[in-house]
Every structure is written in C-alpha cells, then in structure tokens.
Design goal:
319 residues, Rossmann fold, 7-stranded mixed beta sheet, alpha/beta, Rossmann-like_a/b/a_fold, DUF5522, 29% helix, 13 strands
Length: 319
C-alpha cells in the first residue's frame, strides 16, 4: 500500500511539473502540495521539510527530518538561502554570491583538508585584491545515497561545511552509477552544472598537491572551456601542515580521517575517525604519503562557525 501511494504521489507530482503547475492535490488526502517548481521559484529551503524541496532540506533544523536527497544540480547559498541552478542565476544574491553577476573561481570541493587549504589560499587572494573573483564550491555525489566519492562522507556534511564557511555550494548528483562508470559521464554532469555560470567563471580550481598525471588529466579535460588553477601545487608539505595546525589551534577546524585504503586500514594510526594532526603524521607507516596524496587515506574537515570570519594569510596566520 505504501509503495503504491508513493508511486501515485510521484506520478501526480511529475504530471504537475510537466504541466508547469505550482501545486497538485495529494492522492491520499486531497490537500494541496507545492511542486518542485514552486520551491525553485521561491529560491531557497523554507525550513518546513516540504515534500518536494530540491534544496536537500538545507534549513530544516532537525537533522532527522532532512529527508530529501540530491535529485538535481542545486545551488546552495552561503547559509542564508538557496537556489536551484535550473532557475535564473540573477536572483536576490548580490555580486558577492554565485547568484550575483560577479566573476567566479570554482573550487572542486571534497570536504577534505586539501580542499580546505585551497579555499584558504583563494580567500587570501580576495583579502589582498578586492577585485579577485568570489569562490563557489562544486561537489559531486551519488544521487541515491548522497555519498561523496572517495571521502566516505555525505553531501549533507559538505552542505554543513559550506554553510559554516558562508561559501556558495553547487551540489551535483551523479545518477545511474555515473561516479563509477568512467570519466565521461562525470565530466558531462560537471560541465552541465557549470553551464549557467560559464560567462562568469574565471578558473576551475583544484586542491592537487603534486601528482602530475592528475593535474594533466584535469587540464586536458577542462582547459578547452575553462582555465585551470592549482593554488597549492608543489607547496612544501611543512608549510601546508603548519597552516592546518594553526587553524586547528585557533579552534576553527578539526580534521579527521574519513576513509582509508583497505590494505592500510588499522596500520599505525590509519583508522576511520583518527585525528589528523602532527602525532598522526609522525606515526604513519613508511611509504605512506603524509597528506594521503596517493589515495592512502582521505579526510573530513569539521568547520566551526568562527571559520567564516577568520581572515587567513598565505602562511596560515590569522588577521
């Protein structure tokens, strides 16, 4: 019975959307229900847990009630509101947001330490040059589970990071196994998501540290359309770690291990949930990259609300 009702609701909603209608009658109760089109028109999650909210229930306070998964590419705006990328990008956001008209640097965001350090580098550029592009994050995830590939985290975790950092996030669901069926479907999904912002994008930014082959693939894939930047490439590890430790000491972030390669799990400090700090790095088995750059492990950065207000210099010092 429940399955039939769910199908009836989905059919009624699809028919209403196909007809361009803002609401439909619930098959069971007859009550009026807003369609996804109405929510997109409004431009943000109202916080009431609406049935067809396309914004991942971003503003629903109770995590248990955040039931809607990523069904389509959606632009989540810096904690204040949200907007689907399928709607107009000239909405209420000012030039300082992705919905404004200013130039953008798009940062490919995994939620880990390398992404975070890259964001800080771009924010330092903004501090030093008022004319520097605003930063918009982009994250791909599985359309069913919401899992962010490799990181073993969920798009909701990334959404919370973006909200705390007050940075716009473009969430891109990969449907039908696109995340695991090769680069083609992944690239197609990313390029489609970026298309509404094409004229404003100044560069695609990546957190790669030293892997030449990965950098070469990104450049070969994207540079015909967008310039690519690698702000941290070949930065000494000592400098990168110093920046992380400085942030952690200020209490703006906490970095933990979110995934470990199977053959390394439980070797030395390599376990899920381990704190990524100087002690962790010092205890790594021989041959394991200190930053996990070869895929040995991945991290998640928990972000405190104070992180959004911290203005950080290139050397990691606060100003």
């Amino acid at each position: 019975m429940a399955d039939k009702l769910a199908r009836d609701i989905e059919d009624a909603h699809k028919a209403a959307c196909d007809a361009g209608e803002m609401a439909y009658s619930d098959p069971a109760t007859g009550y009026t229900v807003f369609t996804e089109l109405q929510h997109i028109k409004r431009g943000f999650c109202c916080g009431n847990g609406c049935r067809h909210c396309p914004f991942l229930h971003q503003n629903v306070e109770d995590p248990a009630l955040r039931k809607n998964g990523p069904t389509k590419t959606v632009l989540l705006n810096d904690g204040s509101d949200a907007s689907s990328s399928s709607s107009s990008n000239s909405g209420s956001g000012g030039s300082g947001s992705a919905r404004g008209g200013g130039p953008l640097n798009v940062l490919f965001w995994s939620g880990g330490k390398d992404s975070f350090l890259t964001l800080r580098a771009l924010q330092a550029e903004q501090r030093d040059d008022p004319g520097a592009p605003e930063v918009m994050l982009i994250t791909t995830c599985d359309a069913v589970s919401g899992t962010v590939a490799f990181q073993n985290t969920n798009i909701r975790d990334v959404m919370d990071q973006a909200k705390a950092l007050q940075v716009d996030l473009l969430a891109v669901p990969l449907k039908g196994g696109e995340a695991s069926t090769g680069a083609g479907p992944y690239v197609d999904a990313v390029m489609a998501a970026l298309e509404p912002f094409k004229q404003r994008i100044r560069a695609l930014c990546f957190g790669d540290l030293h892997l030449v082959d990965i950098r070469a693939w990104r450049e070969a894939t994207f540079t015909d359309t967008y310039p690519c930047r690698f702000p941290l490439f070949n930065t000494p590890y000592a400098e990168l770690k110093a920046r992380l430790w400085a942030e952690a000491e200020r209490g703006t972030i906490s970095v933990t291990v979110s995934a470990v390669r199977d053959d390394l799990l439980e070797q030395g400090p390599l376990r899920i949930g381990a704190q990524y700090d100087a002690a962790f790095v010092g205890a790594l088995p021989q041959g394991v990259d200190e930053m996990g750059e070869n895929g040995e492990f991945h991290t998640h950065v928990a972000v405190a609300p104070s992180a959004a207000k911290a203005v950080v210099k290139g050397d990691g010092a606060a100003r």
